Every structure is written in C-alpha cells, then in structure tokens.
Amino acid sequence: MRGVLRKLIPEIVINKYHYLLAMSGAIFFRFPSRKLKVIGVTGTNGKSTVVYLLAKMLTAAGYKVASSSSIEFQIGDKVWPNEFKMTMPGRAFLQSFLAKAVKAGCTHVVIEVTSEGLVQNRHAFVDFDTAIFTNLSPEHIERHGGYVKYREAKGVLFRALAKSNKKIKTSIINLADPKAQYFLSFGADRIFVYRKHDQEPRAAIPQAAQEVISQNEQVNASGIDFNIATTKYQSSLRGDLNIENMLAVISAGISEGLSLDSMAKILQEIKEIPGRLEQIPNKKGINVFVDYAHTPAALESVYQALGANSVLICVLGAAGGGRDKWKRPEMGKIAVRYCQKIILTNEDPYDEDPVKIIAEIEAGLKESNFKKENYEIMIDRKAAIVKAISIARSGETVIITGKGSESLMAVAAGKKISWDDRQIAVKALREADK
C-alpha cells in the first residue's frame, strides 16, 4: 500500500515533506548538529567502509563518537545494527539521532550520506564540518533521471557544507575519480585530496590543498599495505578499493590532528567490517565471504580482490523494486569474467518477479557465452548459499554478494522478512562439517 501511495504522490511533495520534518526536528531538538563535529561521507562505493573505519579510529584516538551508516548506528559505547533497510532513515530520524549523540556527550559524528537522502532533504538543517567524496560510478540512474543528475544529487552534500554555519569547513576528495573537479568546485576552507601514487590526478589541485598520496601499495590474499611518507600501513582488509577507502579515512584523521603513526596503529587493529568482504570461518578448508556489493563497480572490485589465486563460486542476485534494471545484465557479464561457477538467486525483489530479475542477470551470462553447465538458477537464496558451499572444494572461494550484513529481505506487498546471509552460511558450513 505504501509503495502504491508513493507512486501516486509527486516527488516534490515527498521532498518537501522530509524537509519540513527535518526543520521541525532541528527546531525541536535545538539544532544538535551545531554542538558536534559533523562529518558526512558520500559517493557510490566505499561509504559504509569509510564511516565504519573513521568512527572506530576516532573512538580509539580518544573521542566520543556517534555514527550512522547502512551497517550500524553508534552513540559512544552503544552500537546497534541498522535494521531500517535504509541508509538515511526519514521522519526526522537524523535530528533525533544527533540530539541523542549530544546528550551522550559525543564530540564527533560520522554520517553516511546517500543521493536519495540528499534529494529528499533528509540532511536538511544538519551543519556539516567536513564532506568526504569517495568515488562515482553509475547507480540509481533510473531513480535520478540520468548520471548527471545522480552526480548533482551527491553534490548537494558539498553545497550543504558551503552553507553550513560551522566556522571552518573541510572537503576531502578522491583526486583519482573522473568527477573530482566537480566536487572540488564547491570549495572549502580546507581541502584534502587523496590518491594512490600510480593514479593520475583527474582534476586541477587547488593551491592550498593538502595531498595525501600512498606509495608502495601491495594487495594480496592476506590484505593490503602501503606507505604514506615514512609511515607504513598494514591492514587485513582486502582489495584495492580499500586502499582508497583508507586514504579517505587517513585524510579525515589528518584534518582532525591525528598523526600518521597513530592512525597506522589504530587501523591495523580493525580486522574486518561487517558484511564487507566478511570472512566466515570454517573447518572445510574453503574460503567463504559475504559482501554488500550491489553495483557493477563494487562487484568487480570484490571479484578482483578474491579471484586472483582461487576458484570463485559466486552467489549473485540483484535488487528489485525497479532499481537500476540496466545493471542486471552488466553484473552478469562481470561475474562471467571472474567466476568459475555462478548461482543466480533472489536478493531483495520487492514487488518484482524474482524470476524476471534473475532472467535479466542471466542475459549477461548468455551474451558472454558462459557455459550453461557452469551456472544454475536457484530462486531460494538460502538454497543457493547452501549449494555453493556444498560444491566448494578445499582452497576454493565462495563469495555471496548483494546483502552483506543486512538483517532483512524486502519482498512483495511492502513486507520485510528476517534474513542474514552470514548466519545461513554459518549453518551451511556446520552441516558440511558433520
């Protein structure tokens, strides 16, 4: 019913509704963001990882921190999972959350900021101190009406930073991204740009900007390591993208006065991130990972991180609800390039027919001439996970993508059912160990 109503209500009305709620919340809670150091993180991929790492790093550095992301919420020592199936909940949630952070004595808050949340004004009346841009690749194109409008939606965070009441405003930009110049164009009192040493700058570097550049990058099965100046960073986080994520976090840490050496020690202690290339331990001798990757760029990054030295058995689906139908065959094509076995399955169908969604992913496999004997379709996601684990041999890798640490699956008629890919994988491994 809610989905039907939303289709009938003009977008401008929905956006104004959220704006008024945010304004009411800000007034009611006495503009809590003005009493906090507010750091917003936007981009297509890596947002949740950057929020998670930055919140944990600032906490370890001695600050009392709050954070809001698609993974979890944190206020000081209290941490609880995000069960909204929404990164930026509406109905003045953010203003209420910030007020609770102030009441708890927090000094800093790190917020994952989405394009839809920005367009709908869920960020309204939040005074940002810092805005971080991770990267941009096609996503939510149908929702926003094109790639340019998607980029502009992300830019709303930097426009909000420019209008913020805070005295010193900081922007942190991935200089290797093709859209870096657009995000730099908003300006700030302090600008940090980051990239790996072998990445060409994709924008003119502002004269006063501070560059954070990694050197001697190494990516292998045990994690990543690199240098910034004379400081060596080592992490068990996997994949090339996590070097960029860490550079964003380190840039933010520098802006907060943390030393390179102290950040290296703190970040090395963070062993994994919930639902982001999260490894499921087992006695079967196989590698099992769960990851949130739900965009073509993120999916390719995950497969690259895991597929160099192992056979990949990939459990793959795509969200329904009319979300980015264009990417379904593209994700199928990406899977063909890296996976030896593929199991296509249900993900979050909403009101769409799961069979139709899977057929659109399968079209990418067929177009790439992937042999039928190397993939199968299993609508039941639990059965797909169990099957992938059952056919994996010692040393091979099972990668389950699309949901990560999410605890709900969105199905027809607006219903959400309890779900956790990780728990299903754990149970399947227990059965396999018997």
Helical run tally: 15
How many domains? The number is 2
Q: Kindly, what is the distance between the CA atoms of the first and last residues, rounded to a whole number of angstroms? A: 45 Å
Helical content stands at 25-40%
What is the CATH architecture descriptor of the largest domain? Answer: 3-Layer(aba) Sandwich
| Strand segment tally | 19
Family: Belongs to the MurCDEF family. MurE subfamily.
GO cellular component, one term: cytoplasm
Domain Mur ligase C-terminal: 275-404
Subcellular location: Cytoplasm
Summarize the structure.
With 434 residues, the protein is of the alpha/beta class. Helix content is 38%, strand content 21%.
Structure description:
With 434 residues, the protein is α/β, with parallel strands linked by helices. The protein folds into 2 domains: 9-268, Mur-like, catalytic domain (UDP-N-acetylmuramoyl-L-alanine:D-glutamate ligase), CATH 3.40.1190; 278-433, Mur ligase, C-terminal domain (Protein-Tyrosine Phosphatase, Chain A). Helices cover 38% and strands 21% of the residues. The chain has 15 helices and 19 strands. The strands form 3 sheets. An 11-stranded mixed beta sheet has the order 4-3-2-5-1-6-7-8-9-10-11, sandwiched between helices. It has a 6-stranded mixed beta sheet with strand order 12-13-17-14-15-16, sandwiched between helices. A two-stranded antiparallel sheet has the order 18-19. A hairpin with a 2-residue loop joins strand 10 and strand 11. Helix 3 packs across helix 9 (241-255), helix 11 runs parallel beside helix 12 (327-338) and helix 14 (381-391) crosses helix 15. Pathway: Cell wall biogenesis; peptidoglycan biosynthesis. Keywords: ATP-binding, Cell cycle, Cell division, Cell shape, Cell wall biogenesis/degradation, Cytoplasm, Ligase, Nucleotide-binding, Peptidoglycan synthesis. Residues 275-404 form the Mur ligase C-terminal domain. GO terms for molecular function: ATP binding; tetrahydrofolylpolyglutamate synthase activity. Its main location: cytoplasm.
